Amino acid sequence: MSLPVLVWLVLECFTLAGYSVVHHSLFSFKYFRDTIEVLVETDDIASEFSGHINIKMGNFVEVIHPYFGYVPDPARNVSAITSDAGFVRVGDAGFVFKKPPDETVIGIMGGSFALGVAASGGDVFRERLRFGKSRVRLLNFASGGYKQPQQLMILNWLLAQGVYFDLIINIDGFNEVALPPVENIPMGVNPFYPRSWYARTSDIIDAQTVRDLGRYETIRSDRKKWAGIFQGNKLYRSPVMCVIWEFRDQAMERDLLEMKKSATDQVFNFKIVNRTLHLLDNQGLPQTAIEGLLNMEDMEFKGQDAFMEALEENISADDLDQHRDLILNFARDHDFVRQGPAYTQPNKDILYQDLVRIWQRSSYQMHKLCEGYGISYHHFLQPNQYVENSKPMTDIEMRRAFQGSHPYRQGVIAGYPLLQKDGEELREYDVNFTDLTMIFEGNDTPLYFDTCCHLTREGYQIVAREICDVIERVPGSPFPVAR
């Protein structure tokens, strides 16, 4: 054995042992392989960037849709095959307008998590949900960031077009409570509007924003290429190479998170104007706070951080603690096109209750639509790593997929108990609702692959199998009404 080979073997052994000691868990080749695979195969169809995505310089472009909010552009997405209606194709193409003689037609709805289930678990559905037919036609209508009532609007449009379904599977919940408080509310946008609506309807983009968008897409593309190098050469078989890959990948992920925040700060300006002060007064803002805001009248602030610093200088801590969200909601001359109907809530508790009520009502309406058309409807609350005690997480998974300060975490902590409660109420109204939040209880295999909500291929397949188990347990025929 040559000296270089011996040195390399010793280095591999030291890395393997050192990794386990530092992270208090055994090194997992499978975890690195699966995580790299997900980055290579799904990154282009699960972008989470909030900004002027009509001009994105990467391979994935979303455009405004008059009924759905937004969809992937079929004409400009070279990396993902999309249907004519603008949805990412994960299997079959083409709508069915009458009952096929030997096919079960299934529609998948929800956000990027549902898209992941359809993409990674599609074969599970095709094998287990045929119900005596020779094949399954699986149609995807899920897309990153979708939240109710978008799924309801999509179903309405499809049925109005005469599209045929045997079964609708709706997988959601996370986006409904995690996205609006972070993306819509701080920008004064109605929380029930599609995500990033302010950015999607902005007409003026300064040069710095364009440069930042380009840098964001470059980093995202580099991250995918970096993972592709390790997948193509099977470098995940080497502990040394895995550590090198992880070090750079995490650095790029941190850069992307910072870019999201930077883009928001540069796109959105805050300004106190006379009409805003009048609205704040009508909402019960204390006179002491209004006097502080008068000192800031007509001053323009780049980004929320700069605006908050000025607030802290002019308003007492007590007034700011009690009325922070109210001030942020109105700290801009209202633009109906960008922000929709003005929304105010006394506190965050009421906001989450409102978000969950829209989610519940939308699901119930989907149930009634499907019932009227003889379609079997099943609604699933997706799991998430920030639901307490929902999954044992190893040090590897904690480092990869858990961030205590993640902006979406608060939405899960505050919103998921309400989703679970209102979901159970749906069952009382004969909706086929299933709570999947504890699906990974007792499973310490690393299944979450990012700090948001997404899973590895293995994780999505576990969810797909559980969905099939639930549907198969429904008494009688899965499609009770003949058409």
Strand and helix order:
HHEEEHEHEHHHHEHHEHHHHEHHEH
Task: Give the integer mean of the pLDDT values.
Answer: 83
How many strands, which pairing sense, and closed or not: the largest β-sheet? 5 strands, parallel
Q: Please compute the radius of gyration using only Cα atoms.
A: 24 Å
Q: Specify the helix fraction band.
A: 40-55%
- For the record, the CATH architecture of the largest domain stands as 3-Layer(aba) Sandwich
| Assigned CATH superfamily of the largest domain | SGNH hydrolase
Task: Give the structural class.
Answer: alpha/beta
The DSSP helix count reads: 17
CATH class placement of the largest domain: Alpha Beta
The CATH topology of the largest domain, please? Answer: Rossmann fold
- Using DSSP, what is the number of strands? 9
The percentage of residues in β strands lies in 5-15%
Task: Flag low-confidence runs.
Answer: 43-58, 479-483
What characteristic shape results from the CA principal axes? globular
Tell me the domain tally: 2
Give the N-terminus to C-terminus distance in angstroms: 72 Å
| Strand arrangement across the biggest beta sheet | 4-3-5-8-9
